Amino acid sequence: MTQLSLYPDAGVEALSLPGADLTLLRRPDLGVSASELLAGLLADTPWRQETITLFGKTHLQPRLLAWYGEADAQYRYSGKTYQPLPFTKRLETLRKRMASLAGAPFNSVLLNYYRNQRDSMGLHADDEPELGREPVIASLSLGEERVLYFRPKHDRELGALDLTLPSGSVLLMRGATQDNWKHGVRKLTRSCGPRLNLTFRYVQARPGH
Prior knowledge:
This protein has 209 residues and is mainly beta. It has three helices and 15 strands.
């Protein structure tokens, strides 16, 4: 029996993408409603807007974020090192649920807040060294539906995938997904409401920490 077979009502869907291991849970049991989680996290999270430097120019990232985790779960992303905030009670409960769904441990979570249609995430892979080989990532979506688009890192003949993520859904990314694919969230030309994305992951402690 697989881990996900323990959740027959979760709307489990294995997604077909060469060189990737993607599973979408459309209706996982989160313990509370997606709307309640969204409202609580929007209100309680100390959101930050970071900068990113591209081609010698520094810009504000088009979204807000927060990083939570165990004390040694330092994370380096876009040239910055993030020190984790301690898990809140709400996030600790979610972490346990995500670990149960994925059958893998998590010691940290990155929260991205897309405030409206102008916020986005560029193409990237979660392939930082501290995530280890073939990381397991559980991605929880709350609020407005947005499209997560996948494009190949190396072989364009692999095709592409545009995946609409419903509020309350969980996308599990495993295996060689990060080796072979990049993913991102585009800006929209129509107005839309807020969306939160929580990506749970396991960050390996750096030597000497």
